[in-house]
Hints:
By secondary structure, the protein is of the alpha+beta class. 26% of the residues lie in helices and 42% in strands. It is globular and about 45 Å long.
Amino acid sequence: MAVDVLTEIVIERPCAEVAAYAGDPSHAPEWYANIDSVAWRTPAPVGVGSKVDFVARFLGRRLAYTYEVVDLVPGERLVMRTAEGPFPMETAYTWQPAGAASTRMTLRNRGEPAGFGKIAGPVMATAIRRANRKDLASLKEIMERPVAG
């Protein structure tokens, strides 16, 4: 069963700020509930060809995988694909203006699960959608916090 989940949210911050934060894999554990750690395999900052190791929990299992950045348009789009991991998956972020100082961010996960993912196929898309909604809500909360000063 193929997985293709698209989730979006409007964040009351300019595109450049949302993209800079969300598009930096180092921040992923701060807003993704299921991501425990991130380690760069290639030097930061993010660019096409960058590789990043993630350790996550999903459907009660520990997953370790490596994403490679395959497309990057700063401030507009970031696309990563698994270079190593339990199943092939692509994660794409897009950022578009949604007003003078707001951003419409989309998060899309798609792939063809194998192994454990194939067995869990019927519940995988639903679980990804639920997790993505929570993660984007967390990102929104972080990005919209008043700046101390």
